[in-house]
Amino acid sequence: MKTHSLEVRGEFACFTRPEMKVERVSYEVITPSAVRAIFDAILWKPEIHWQVTCIEVLSPIRWINLRRNELGGIISERNVKTAMKKGRGQLGTYIEGDRQQRASLFLRDVHYRIHAHFELRDKSENPAKYSEMFERRARKGQCFNQPYLGCREFSCNFRPATTDAAPIGETRDLGWMLYDLDYGDPKSPNPRFFQARMENGIIEIPAWDSEEVRG
User: Tell me, what's the pLDDT at 72?
Assistant: First the structure.
């Protein structure tokens, strides 16, 4: 299967660690789920599923502390279902009454080269058709929604990986990292993790169904 590569960069990024309950604290590098979301933003089709294979960190890992306003709550699922049934309902939320200021630890000035290939759910499909479609859309900067770096307000620039910029010469264990969510049960998605390690700026991503990925 052909591997596709992108270069992505942004001013800020936050790949939130799920063990942090109140403050947002980012992982040190982009997660496979965030990479998959970027590829999906450029080309999503029900016939394909993106498998992330490798992440290259091209800029030094830098941090920034920020305090920002967030909503303390969310619109209830019950109100949404009621509005869907009746065709009307109260779905508004007012930040003035629900504002909370929270400290956050973000990444800044990030630059990655990311690699993935897609797997066909229907083996009778022609993979070359989807490869050409992805490459054309990436080359033209086309996307279904603006790709982002962990949080939607942190949009990123993307382009096909055409440079040979060297990854940072840094090796470190990154600990258990979120791989992606398992939607086997749509009502209760199950997070899955893997033991991440960066070798000279390169993180190899195991296959979704490998023993290294645990849920």
Answer: 66
36 SS3 class: helix
Residue 182, beta-bridge partner list: 190
Q: Is residue 124 left, alpha or beta, with left meaning phi > 0 and alpha meaning psi from -120 to 50?
A: alpha
Residue 201, number of CB atoms within 10 A of its CB: 22
pLDDT beneath 70, residues of the chain: 71-72, 96-99
Is 1.10.10.10 the CATH classification of the domain at 4-69+102-204? no
Mean per-residue pLDDT of the chain: 90
Q: Quick one: DSSP state of residue 185?
A: S
pTM: 0.87
The answer to whether the CB of 40 falls within 8 A of the CB of 50 is yes
Cβ distance 107 to 57 under 8 Å?
no
